[in-house]
């Protein structure tokens, strides 16, 4: 095995000995049945992760030079043995055995190609590789290509040093290696911005906002540079004394990393994140196309957003903010430092991100940046993780272990919220900086010691109790959680029963003195209910008293004492109103004999209601309530302390006055209706029967009767009233459903919802769709807005031109999704506006059967008046447009097809004669309408021939076209025109020569190459459709899902929505999808596997979607697509997977966002040139086309990022399970199909720490490369993140740091998206920029969902319609008026 060439005689034992050590008996690794190259590089054990790049290089060069690939694997084997000589790591022994067997086989099969021995072979190959791929490559290759090339060159040189002794490496190789080492630091795999990459600079790096942001974060001139302190060793007197060095940094984030010790992956990730944030915010403040400096307002705006919670936290705890800008300092630089510090902490916080107030401690203890020299030594990359994040994480982890898998009581362990509430009090400042691990936050309980945990962290003592709240599971929560509702309904029921029981029985009885006095007893009931509430407050919070502040405990006690006092005082006072009290009131009457004044009760009620009156006043003035809740003044604090417990969250959430008015009006109307119904329908009808039953005397009771001896037949009364009381308390929900439906329907009508519900309604209003599209979905300036009010024909054509780009892409995506057929697609496409036609070109489905009807109308017309015929045609605008379009398009087709100038002159004369006759209103006298049907038949034949592409003999095909064309011209001249012979006379062709050879040779010279012109063929196809389609357009498309999407999109254009900004000025956003082990794509085996009923998945879907399966077969069998048999099988898998709840369907849907952004940029870039072509048929020089494509992709990268958090992707990559390998392969294929897709996963590695294997966890972001994935960022975690909390939130949390932009859309992996809805995303994002009358902009936005599995069963159909109707209405009402 080339051991002689690979050994260094002066560096220990020969490598052959080390290889022999691996020949021990071991089990061969169970490798999946797939390409060995993938096995080599992707199934490397986690403890040998450094070997994977070497094996990838071996796979890359194997086809070109198998011997070099063998040497690479030899180097990988040598490195493997050095890393783990005893094969103690998991799977290392099996991997060594496999690699050794392969090396033995390849040593015999491969031979050097460039030289006679291996040392010379690898050096020559390395030199050739450098000269071929690296020299001058930075001017021709992209940055990602250069990153891969430099990585390969570095690995190849490592192989050189392994195979060739250092003294035998030639000078040229060393020179190339030094150059590679110098450049490799600037060539790294990147996410979006190639900040340090070499090669052709991408278009995104040329954007002025990116340049300005990059320049701003690289401003480090005024910062104190960190010093690298030398290591202290025992030195001789003659030795030189080590000198302190100042470490140079390139930007603010690297400076912060050297000060605090952040990881390199975290720094690189947040560097790009910060640049993109600054660039996107800055461009919205600019009106210039080119600039170099970042606007200060941009930094201030970003600072206000990021530190909003920190400033609120400081205000809550009455501590000073530590974000300071000293006088005379560079404000922009300092603010950027604080922003970058926050992002770096956030990027490394792992599970601590669920405790946002923890950041406040860090910022309150971090010393502000000053101009003094910074003397602290440079920290290592994991200092912050080790010193700050890991201790907090360990506290979380220990608390989760106390949970005992959900079996322990909630009172025995603390979750995220409990630990986060620790930072809502002044006690959190005891943590200090650096963190004091003896603080009470780190205290562990005595009765719990996690296994394998050392007790040198923190102190051992009593377990820290939960904070503020401990859940107690009891049915009393039904009352305490909704106490105000229960109190209101109970008091209202009492008052209504008293009024109904009065002799009058009407609502006016309340003005009777006795009735009014009885009604006043509701305040006594209120006092007792309030006492129950105060008692429950103490009982339900008793377990949390150990951790509560004294002020909170005092509040509970005082509330209880006051409630108890009122429960005694009010009955005493009320007894003074009763002349002869009985029952319980007699006792209170005896207590209050000295308080005989009847006015005492009224005063007592007035005092008792003061808190409620004040609360009502503050409720009606939300600004004062909001200010009081956020105030730190002592009197206001005491007042608010009594009104509600002081918590950090939920303060100042009141809306504006107008929203409050709508909210109050809604509930007043609802409660009036509910109480009126309850009074007149439920309570009053029972009063009379109840009185009658109470007066009845029953003396003989049967044995089975209950409560026979109760006074006034009370048992019967309870039995009658119990159902009514239950309905009384429950029907509020029914009334809410009624009112929400009414208000939601009215609000929807005013919002223009449901104006287009069917295709028939779409046809009737399609002419208004382009203008609505331009109004809402296209950005417009004020000047353009004023012009659009003048809807002349040119503006209408402009609107249709823009609309056609999006509509046609929409229709094409439905065709690619197999929702519609090729014929449906052709009927639905809107022609790109052309100057060749004087009328507006509508889609053929609107013009279907218009031409045949017009021909029949003209043929059967008996009059000679042109005006009457044309009036009938003009009565239908679509028919009029179709007739003129056919007329002009036929002229262009025939004129373009003819080559002979005499033939063209004949055509011009014919059309000239038609135009003159139309102008002089003698068309019917000069032309025979009876010849039009046969002319139409020949035109259909002519157009069908022009569309044929599968002819064998070009001459025969050409002759067929000539014959039909001659027939058409003969019919026009002889059968249709009265004086057609005059055409030949004007062209010097006499009528008597029409039967000679000269006439037969007319129209024989045609340009058959014109059929290669795509735009000309589109005219032919469209004209053929207009002439032949005779069925009603109401049936196009026939697919129900396609109809739903078309009508929904058209209807949404008439809704009230924010106007669309330009692409560069829109909010940037990301989409995050969590994924665990669900289906990515179905395999061929899964498609054909039959269930117990003998039904396969493929067969089932074919029966559910028969029309879509037919469309699919038409697409894959179309010769234009050129699908191979393998491609057809892959397309079949995709067809099935896109109809299930798979990750592939979700990724395809989310990637429509990017496609929509590129189309939006095209509409802005092209301007009025859209009149002359389409998005896919744009004709530009090659360089301009490439520049346009690069700029469109740059803006799409700037505005949109898609991250799929595949939690176990790393484990699936190394797994030998067939399903896991299938998931890995499918996810990899998705990354290769969509280059902008990013996959984040949690990587588990075995690393040696203190000579012991230890599991380490990383958050990793990868993207698709040429054949495999490429790692972009790797950030170490304090431990396994999914052991804390729940799986899905933790999966999202670890990946959220890789998202970009100012908005984040969370999408589950069973959801989908549509292109037409993706086009409206920038309108949706504008909702975050609008103020809805309140003090705050919205921060969470909900979108309606469509359940696409509704066709599977009747239950699914019901749930789908429920989501569409009731859920949507409910959310609409909650947004307005109940916001």
UniProtKB/TrEMBL annotation:
Residues 333-436 form the 1,3-beta-glucan synthase component FKS1-like domain. It comes from the Eukaryota. Residues 1-23 are annotated as: Disordered. Belongs to the glycosyltransferase 48 family. GO terms for biological process: (1->3)-beta-D-glucan biosynthetic process; cell wall organization; regulation of cell shape. It catalyses: [(1->3)-beta-D-glucosyl](n) + UDP-alpha-D-glucose = [(1->3)-beta-D-glucosyl](n+1) + UDP + H(+). Its main location: membrane. It is an enzyme of class 2 (transferase). This is 1,3-beta-glucan synthase. Its EC number is 2.4.1.34. It is a multi-pass membrane protein. One of its GO terms (cellular component) is plasma membrane. The lineage of its organism: Eukaryota, Viridiplantae, Streptophyta, Embryophyta, Tracheophyta. The chain crosses the membrane at residues 335-354, 485-503, 523-545, 557-580, 600-621, 666-689, 710-728, 734-753. It comes from Punica granatum. Keywords: Cell membrane, Cell shape, Cell wall biogenesis/degradation, Glycosyltransferase, Membrane, Transferase, Transmembrane, Transmembrane helix.
């Amino acid at each position: 095995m080339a051991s002689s060439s690979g050994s260094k005689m002066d560096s220990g034992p020969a490598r052959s000995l080390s290889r022999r050590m691996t020949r021990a008996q071991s089990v061969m690794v169970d490798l999946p049945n797939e390409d060995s190259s993938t096995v080599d590089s992707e199934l490397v054990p986690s403890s040998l992760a450094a070997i994977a790049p070497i094996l990838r290089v071996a796979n890359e060069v194997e086809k070109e030079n198998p011997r070099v690939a063998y040497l690479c694997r030899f180097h990988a084997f040598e490195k493997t043995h050095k890393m783990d000589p005893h094969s103690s790591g998991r799977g290392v022994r099996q991997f060594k055995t496999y690699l050794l067997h392969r090396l033995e086989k390849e040593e015999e099969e491969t031979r050097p190609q460039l030289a006679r021995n291996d040392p010379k072979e690898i050096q020559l190959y390395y030199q050739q590789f450098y000269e071929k791929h690296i020299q001058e490559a930075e001017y021709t290759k992209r940055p990602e290509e250069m990153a891969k090339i430099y990585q390969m060159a570095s690995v190849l040189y490592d192989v050189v040093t392994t195979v060739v002794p250092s003294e035998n490496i030639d000078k040229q190789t060393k020179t190339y290696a030094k150059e590679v080492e110098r450049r490799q630091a600037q060539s790294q795999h990147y996410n979006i911005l190639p900040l340090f990459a070499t090669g052709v600079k991408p278009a995104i790096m040329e954007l002025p906002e990116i340049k300005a942001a990059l320049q701003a974060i690289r401003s480090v001139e005024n910062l104190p540079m960190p010093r690298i302190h030398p290591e202290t060793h025992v030195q001789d007197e003659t030795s030189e004394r080590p000198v302190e060095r100042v470490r140079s940094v390139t930007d603010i984030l690297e400076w912060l990393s050297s000060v605090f010790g952040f990881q390199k992956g975290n720094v690189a990730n947040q560097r790009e994140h910060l640049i993109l944030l600054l660039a996107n915010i800055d461009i919205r403040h600019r009106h210039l196309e080119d600039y170099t400096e970042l606007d200060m307002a941009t930094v201030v705006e970003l600072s206000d957003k990021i530190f909003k919670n920190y400033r609120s936290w400081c205000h809550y705890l009455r501590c000073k903010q530590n974000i300071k800008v000293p006088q005379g300092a560079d404000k922009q630089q300092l603010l950027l430092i604080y922003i970058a510090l926050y992002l770096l902490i956030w990027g490394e916080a792992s599970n601590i991100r669920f405790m946002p107030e923890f950041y406040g401690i860090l910022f309150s203890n971090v010393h502000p940046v000053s101009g003094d020299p910074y003397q602290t030594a440079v920290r290592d990359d994991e200092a912050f993780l080790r010193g700050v994040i890991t201790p907090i994480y360990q506290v979380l982890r220990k608390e989760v272990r106390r949970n005992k898998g959900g079996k322990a009581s909630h009172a025995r362990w603390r979750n995220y919220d409990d630990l986060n509430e620790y930072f809502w009090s002044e006690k959190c400042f005891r943590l200090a900086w650096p963190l004091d691990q003896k603080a009470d936050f780190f205290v562990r309980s005595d009765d719990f010691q996690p296994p394998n945990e050392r007790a040198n962290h923190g102190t051992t003592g009593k377990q820290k109790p939960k904070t503020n709240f401990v859940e107690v599971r009891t049915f009393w929560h039904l009352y305490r959680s909704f106490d105000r509702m229960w109190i209101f309904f109970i008091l209202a029921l009492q008052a209504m029963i008293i009024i109904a029981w009065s002799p009058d029985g009407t609502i006016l009885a309340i003005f009777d003195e006795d009735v009014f006095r009885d009604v006043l007893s509701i305040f006594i009931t209120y006092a007792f209910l309030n006492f129950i509430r105060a008692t429950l407050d103490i009982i339900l919070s008793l377990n949390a008293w150990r951790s509560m502040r004294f002020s909170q405990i005092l509040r509970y006690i005082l509330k209880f004492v006051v409630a108890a006092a009122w429960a005694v005082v009010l009955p005493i006072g009320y007894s003074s109103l009763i002349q002869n009290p009985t029952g319980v009131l007699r006792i209170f009457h005896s207590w209050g004999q000295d308080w005989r004044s009847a006015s005492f009760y009224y005063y007592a009620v007035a005092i008792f209601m003061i808190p409620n009156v004040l609360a009502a006043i503050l409720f009606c003035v939300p600004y004062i309530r909001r200010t009081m809740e956020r105030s730190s003044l002592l009197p206001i604090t005491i007042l608010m302390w009594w009104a509600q417990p002081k918590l950090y969250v939920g303060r100042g959430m009141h809306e504006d006055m107008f929203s409050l008015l709508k909210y109050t009006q809604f509930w007043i109307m609802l409660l009036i209706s509910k109480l009126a119904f309850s009074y007149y329908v439920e309570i009053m009808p029972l009063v009379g029967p109840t009185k009658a039953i109470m007066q009845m005397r029953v003396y003989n009771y049967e044995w089975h009767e209950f409560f026979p001896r109760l006074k006034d037949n009370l048992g019967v009364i309870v039995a009658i009233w119990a159902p009514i009381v239950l309905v009384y308390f429950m029907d509020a929900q029914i009334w809410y459903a009624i009112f929400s439906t009414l208000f939601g329907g009215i609000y929807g009508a005013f919002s223009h919802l449901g104006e287009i519900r069917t295709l028939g309604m779409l046809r009737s209003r399609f002419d208004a769709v382009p203008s609505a599209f331009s109004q809402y979905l296209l950005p417009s300036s004020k000047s353009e807005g004023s012009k659009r009010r003048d809807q002349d024909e040119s503006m209408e054509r402009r609107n249709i031109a823009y609309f056609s780009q999006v509509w046609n892409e929409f229709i094409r995506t439905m065709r690619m999704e197999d929702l519609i057929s090729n014929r449906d697609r052709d009927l639905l496409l809107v022609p790109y506006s052309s100057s060749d036609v004087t009328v507006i070109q509508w889609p053929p489905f609107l013009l279907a059967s218009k031409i045949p009807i017009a021909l029949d109308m003209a043929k059967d017309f008996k009059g000679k008046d042109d005006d009457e015929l044309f009036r009938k045609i003009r009565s239908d605008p679509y028919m009029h447009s179709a007739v003129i379009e056919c007329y002009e398009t036929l002229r262009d087709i025939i004129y373009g097809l003819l080559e002979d100038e005499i033939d063209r002159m004949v055509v011009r004369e014919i059309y000239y004669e038609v135009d003159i006759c139309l102008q002089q209103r003698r068309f019917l006298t000069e032309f025979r309408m009876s010849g039009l049907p046969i002319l139409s038949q020949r035109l259909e034949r002519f157009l069908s021939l022009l569309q044929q592409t599968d002819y064998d003999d070009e001459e025969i095909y050409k002759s067929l076209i000539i014959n039909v064309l001659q027939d058409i011209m003969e019919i026009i001249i002889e059968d249709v025109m009265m004086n057609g012979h005059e055409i030949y006379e004007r062209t010097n062709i006499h009528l008597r020569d029409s039967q000679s050879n000269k006439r037969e040779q007319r129209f024989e010279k045609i340009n058959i190459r014109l059929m290669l012109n795509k735009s000309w063929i589109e005219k032919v196809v469209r004209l053929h459709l207009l002439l032949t389609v005779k069925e009603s357009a109401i049936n196009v498309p026939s697919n129900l899902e396609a109809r739903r999407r078309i009508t929904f999109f058209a209807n949404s254009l008439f809704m009230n929505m924010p106007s669309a900004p330009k692409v560069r000025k829109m909010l940037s956003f990301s989409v995050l999808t969590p994924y665990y082990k669900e289906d990515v794509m179905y395999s061929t085996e899964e498609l054909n596997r039959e269930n117990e009923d003998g039904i396969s998945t493929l067969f089932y879907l074919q029966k559910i979607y028969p029309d879509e399966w037919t469309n699919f077969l038409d697409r894959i069998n179309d010769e234009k697509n050129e699908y191979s048999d393998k491609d057809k099988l892959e397309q079949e898998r995709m067809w099935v997977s896109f109809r299930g709840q798979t990750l592939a369907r979700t990724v395809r849907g989310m990637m429509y966002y990017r496609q929509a952004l590129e189309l939006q940029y095209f509409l802005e870039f092209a301007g009025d040139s859209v009149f002359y072509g389409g998005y896919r048929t744009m004709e530009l020089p090659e360089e301009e086309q490439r520049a346009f494509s690069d700029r469109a992709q740059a803006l799409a990268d700037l505005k949109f990022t898609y991250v799929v958090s595949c939690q176990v992707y790393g484990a699936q990559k190394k797994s030998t399970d067939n399903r896991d390998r299938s998931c890995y392969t499918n996810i990899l294929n998705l990354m290769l199909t969509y280059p902008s897709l990013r996959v984040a996963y949690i990587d588990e590695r075995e690393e040696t720490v203190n000579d012991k294997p230890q599991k380490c966890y990383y958050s990793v972001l990868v993207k698709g490369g040429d054949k495999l994935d490429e790692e972009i960022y790797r950030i170490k975690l304090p431990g396994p993140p999914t052991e804390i909390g729940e799986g899905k939130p933790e999966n999202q949390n670890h990946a959220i740091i890789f998202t970009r932009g100012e908005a984040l859309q969370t999408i589950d992996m069973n959801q989908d998206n549509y292109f037409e809805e993706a086009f409206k995303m920038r309108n949706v994002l504008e909702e975050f920029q609008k103020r809805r009358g309140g003090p705050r902009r919205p921060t969470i936005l909900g979108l309606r969902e469509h359940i696409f599995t509704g066709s599977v069963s009747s239950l699914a159909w019901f749930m789908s319609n429920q989501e569409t109707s009731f859920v949507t209405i409910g959310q609409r009402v909650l947004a307005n008026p109940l916001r």
